[in-house]
């Protein structure tokens, strides 16, 4: 009798665990497959529109500074995505937040030849992206595509990563100080803290998967970018 009761107990626990597991697995898969938008972000002149046209139409076209988004379907290895090229102009670049609820992954394009000079503006934009509640909550994967490697003035990928980490570290301390000064209330709108408190900022410290790769839209060296999009 006692043994029978124990068996019933175990069976009930096993059933509950199974139900919870299947709900969790279903939730994870559904979340991943239902979102198809790939956001191309980055400051002006990084090469976003060139990347967009190369990926979608397989060719280069002359581009001018974008003031509105380009959007359309992109099929890679039998998967169809919705590709969005956001303008890098400072007045419109923050509109990307409207797309976050449907965003599957973000390709953040950096001009490797000017990133050192523009580290403030690039770092600030990237910080804004990484600190978005939705980006953190959904753990949206981010690729930092270090573009224009065909030019000899291009900074190597590891140096770009280092410079961005230093810049984000600097921004983090000034922002935290500002928040403390204002004694801001802890509402939902507040930016999330990036990385570990008391430690220098490293991309590795984030819950999101942040990867760095080099590319050249000009020379059609986009294998690593395409591969990343397909697998994220
Ligand atoms: N050498 C070189 N030039 C590139 C490469 N990719 C883009 N460019 C050039 O960079 C310039 C800017 O490219 P766009 O694609 O228009 O830049 P964008 O990021 O869309 O800029 P905004 O629309 O202003 O935000 C163009 O003159 C491109 O030809 C590259 O891989 N190598
Ligand atoms: Mg553009």
Automatic annotation (TrEMBL):
One of its GO terms (molecular function) is GTP binding. PROSITE patterns: ARF. It is a single-pass membrane protein. Keywords: Endoplasmic reticulum, GTP-binding, Magnesium, Membrane, Metal-binding, Nucleotide-binding, Receptor, Transmembrane, Transmembrane helix. InterPro entries: P-loop_NTPase, Small_GTP-bd, Small_GTPase_ARF, Small_GTPase_ARF/SAR, SRP_receptor_beta_su. Its main location: endoplasmic reticulum. It is found in: Endoplasmic reticulum membrane. The chain crosses the membrane at residues 6-29. Mg(2+) binds at residues 49, 66. PANTHER family: ADP RIBOSYLATION FACTOR-RELATED. Belongs to the SRP receptor beta subunit family. This is Signal recognition particle receptor subunit beta. It comes from Phascolomyces articulosus.
